[in-house]
Amino acid sequence: MSSSAMRKYLQVLALGLQNQLAYRFNFLARVLFSLIPLTALLMLWRTIYAGQPEGTTISGYTLPEMLAYYLVAAWVNALTAVTEDDWQIAADIREGNINHLLAKPIDYLAYRLCLFASGRLIYAAVAVVPLLLFLGWSRIPLHVPTDPATWAWFLVSLVLTALLQFFISFALAMLAFWVLEVSTFIFIVYAFEYIASGHLFPLDILPEPLQRLLPWTPFFYELYFPVSIWLGKTAGADLWRGLALQIGWVLVAWCLARWAWHRGLRRYAAFGG
Length: 273
Known about the structure:
Order of helices and strands: HHHHHHHHHHH
Structural class: mainly alpha
Helix content: over 70%
Oligomer: single chain
């Protein structure tokens, strides 16, 4: 990418940050409401471990480790989750707003990626204080890796997780070229993603056959994988294999998003878009 193109997308990122700041209260409200199901999950696991001897493990998790899992998952989700990007992309297509963008020397996928990044940065900044206050109130010891390499690989996986989530959402939004309402398809995929990515529970408490199957799906890398790196559950050969598969799924999702965009544009042009 040339320096002029880089400056162009940096300007898009800066404009996105300015626009997102106008909705910072919405972000704050979303963070606060997200703490309600998080609190319910923490209370559930405290009840499950209640009455058990100290140090009791369930699928390799002590109570502090299980609670730490959900807190780290909340951070990862705040930094990587797609919120309204897919709906906005679908609306751009359905309402014809992409016409003026197609006339500009800008790549729509890169343009939307910059806007996604700006939204995640603002959301993460707004979420810092509420999550820290929640951490202090809940009195949960948060596991912090001591090995610098763990931090490095966690950050690499975190970026890949964000890209994977965005490309999958972009590809789903491309269905707007063919159907009037994409919400059904998005909800179906998100329902699988919520369970199979580790939002509801750590994936290593599942039966062994599912534990072997899920790492071959993209859902595994949309939340659980970076969290497991942070908690020290994934290291060594498992880490390298997981990163290779995560990179592979990012490339597959990117190719699918590109293919769907170009196929959609041909259909759009054919119908006089």
